[in-house]
């Protein structure tokens, strides 16, 4: 994915969000305001594997997409936001990088061979070279099953919809437009996964995705991961001064708890994205939650397929 292109092109009018519980769509209408609709997902519509999303029931998903598209009257060319844990995200160090995209893909597949228990040839890879700081070059990379992505695309095409961009929630939040030079840490929680990204100097400098404990309560894992990430940013990355923390989580209690953790950090101002604008129905917005709606709002405001 080309971050410069995403930031310079107009935002999409329609953004879809998929996960194991709901399919959501928001259509932005400049005259009448945003329209939001959602439907519950039947069991086993999406199958997970060792490297994230593994397969999709195309026929059943096409039916859900078609019904929502008829209700919302959305655009044909859209952006699609998926849970961060459906993909595998990496920030790779690189001294020398090939200029040709095909050669870059070969380099990334060779490196991913050591990181994932899946044959690199079976992965769909999206990569973006981040703006270098001095001689330091990094590549932001996401990988997901080629079969699963092809099935997602097929389901949308069956409903008469063309996904121009498919991206994980944490990358969607990174795309949110902010003032030039703003440094931000994104803290995003969904189900049993915590994701964090640090953005500075026009690029992503840290990406961290950690599964939370399945037993004994996950909050201890959240506290630990937030503490480790903040320590790494301040000490190893040597980031001084103030920066903003953006919080998105699966329920309002968790949002407030994570915000409370970050408010205790020196030099950190906390912001919870406003999601009411993209879902005017207050009851539906509360049901869907910030974890779904905040990434949608970020793409509507800042990115494009």
What does this structure look like?
This protein is an alpha/beta fold. It contains 9 helices and 15 strands. A 5-stranded mixed sheet has the order 3-2-1-6-10, sandwiched between helices. Helix 2 packs across helix 4. The longest helix has 18 residues. The protein starts with a helix and ends with a helix.
Features:
single chain, 305 residues, alpha/beta, five-stranded mixed β-sheet, 15 strands
Topology at a glance:
Elements: H1 3-8, E1 14-18, E2 22-27, E3 35-40, E4 46-49, E5 52-56, H2 58-72, E6 77-82, E7 88-93, H3 101-112, E8 123-129, E9 138-145, H4 146-158, E10 162-168, H5 169-174, E11 184-190, E12 193-200, E13 203-211, H6 219-236, E14 243-248, H7 252-263, E15 268-271, H8 282-288, H9 290-302
Parallel strand pairs: 1-6, 6-10, 11-14, 14-15
Antiparallel strand pairs: 1-2, 2-3, 4-5, 7-9, 8-9, 11-12, 12-13
Helix pairs in contact: 2-4
In short:
Helix content is 33%, strand content 31%. With 305 residues, the protein is an alpha/beta fold. β11 (184-190) and β12 (193-200) form a beta hairpin.
Average per-residue pLDDT, rounded, comes to 86
Number of helices: 9
Query: Termini separation (Å)?
Result: 10 Å
**Strand composition percent:** 25-35%
Number of DSSP-assigned strands: 15
* Shape call: globular
Question: What class would the helix/strand composition place it in?
Answer: alpha/beta
Strand order of the largest sheet: 3-2-1-6-10
Order of helices and strands: HEEEEEHEEHEEHEHEEEHEHEHH
Helix proportion range: 25-40%
Q: Write down the Rg.
A: 19 Å
- Spans of at least 5 consecutive residues with low confidence: 1-8
Largest sheet features? 5 strands, mixed
């Amino acid at each position: 994915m080309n971050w410069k292109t995403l930031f310079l092109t107009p935002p999409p009018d329609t953004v879809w969000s998929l996960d194991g519980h709901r399919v959501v769509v928001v259509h932005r209408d400049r005259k009448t305001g945003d329209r939001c609709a959602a439907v519950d997902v039947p069991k086993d519509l999406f199958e997970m594997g060792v490297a994230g999303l593994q397969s999709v029931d195309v026929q059943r998903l096409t039916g859900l997409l078609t019904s929502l598209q008829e209700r919302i009257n959305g655009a044909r060319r859209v952006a699609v936001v998926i849970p961060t844990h459906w993909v595998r995200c990496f920030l790779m160090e690189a001294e020398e990088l090939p200029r040709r995209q095909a050669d870059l893909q070969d380099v990334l597949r060779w490196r991913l061979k050591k990181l994932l228990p899946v044959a690199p040839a079976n992965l769909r890879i999206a990569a973006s070279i981040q703006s270098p700081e001095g001689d330091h070059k990094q590549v932001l990379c996401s990988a997901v099953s080629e079969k699963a992505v092809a099935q997602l695309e097929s389901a949308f095409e069956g409903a008469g919809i063309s996904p121009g961009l498919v991206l994980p929630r944490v990358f969607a939040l990174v795309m949110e437009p902010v003032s030039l030079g703003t440094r931000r840490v994104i803290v995003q929680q969904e189900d049993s996964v915590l994701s964090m990204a640090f953005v500075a100097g026009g690029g992503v400098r840290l990406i961290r995705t950690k599964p939370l404990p399945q037993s004994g309560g996950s909050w201890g894992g959240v506290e630990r991961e937030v503490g480790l990430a903040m320590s790494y940013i301040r000490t190893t990355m040597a980031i001084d001064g103030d920066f903003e923390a953006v919080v998105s989580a699966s329920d309002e209690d968790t949002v407030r708890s994570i915000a409370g953790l970050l408010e205790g950090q020196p030099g950190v101002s906390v912001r919870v994205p406003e999601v009411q604008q993209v879902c005017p129905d207050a009851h539906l917005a509360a049901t869907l939650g910030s974890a779904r709606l905040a990434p949608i709002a970020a793409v509507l405001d800042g990115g494009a397929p």
